[in-house]
């Protein structure tokens, strides 16, 4: 059965139902809604300070850059995530080819559509991994899309099987800094891209396998790392939480632009009016309902709060406070110890 999507206002109303200050046919007044929202945020602040976080899970998709092992959450996060809200990793994996790799980039025609984006749209297979150098030329007397020029070396930023972006240097390509395309060029000829790298990085093909990354802590990372610049398939990942920004680091350093996914646990550190709580598991919603109902007792001394309600609240509280890990996907109504993550022993040989 699908979970009912609730909002902060629903949480306020249900907590008032719990203590008997609202009936089933009654609606909350402005004071209840405004004060209830303030109390919710007080609860979040209080429990965060006490080591209890109200998390939800979300997945971030990104692409490793060749030779880059550390990435900031803000570089790759969706717009609905704040970088200081990431508190833990739930899983991480990456994609590699299952039948080998293409030999490298080949000469290809391309077009652009600057009104939409700055992609170079390749008409044949794309093996231009990030950092691959190339030149472009217009045939039949045409002019290239601005500001691209002939006989100038550019560097590719891999997007997908048919799209790349152009950068002015290898370092810019590695950092994702691309050249904005401002026109689609002119003339009746074609635009041709030609690789200039003598040994271009291999590019994953469409058929692929997904490999997990072992999630470790920072201390384990420094106990494992022996050669910090080792280029290979990643085997480990750790989250480096900072006050204003969080980073992930993988080891070994990616040797190809592997697409990867990480599922992160985000802390709910504030809520506003009518915020959707659809990603909040039922266990945490119940905890918040009882915690908020308990807060209302300071405003409504005659409210109904029997010992049964207090016992239920204490049960929620102690389960969350004593938990080492919370499984939000398999059994969201209970607190579980997470299984040991995938372990890649061969990495220790490095």
Top keywords for this entry?
single chain, 350 residues, alpha+beta, 3 domains, six-stranded antiparallel beta barrel, 7 helices, 26% strand, elongated, disordered C terminus
What does this 3D model show about the protein?
The protein is an alpha+beta fold and 350 residues long. The chain has 3 domains: 8-54 and 270-322; 55-99 and 207-267, no CATH class; 101-204. 23% of the residues lie in helices and 26% in strands. The protein is built from 7 helices and 18 strands. The strands form 5 sheets. Strands 5-6-9-8-7-10 form a 6-stranded antiparallel β-barrel. Strand 15 (236-241) and strand 16 form a beta hairpin.
In short:
It is built from seven helices and 18 strands. The protein is an alpha+beta fold and 350 residues long.
Enumerate the spans where pLDDT stays under 50 for 5 or more consecutive residues. 324-350
**What is the CA-based Rg, rounded?**
26 Å
Number of domains: 3
Q: Give the count of helical stretches.
A: 7
Q: What is the CA–CA distance across the termini?
A: 48 Å
Structural class: alpha+beta
The strand line-up of the biggest sheet is: 5-6-9-8-7-10
Query: What global shape is seen?
Result: elongated
Biggest β-sheet description: 6 strands, antiparallel, barrel
Order of helices and strands: HHEEHEEEEEEEHEEEEHEEEEEHH
Q: Mean pLDDT score, rounded?
A: 78
Helix content: 10-25%
Give the amount of beta strand, in percent.
25-35%
The total strand number stands at: 18
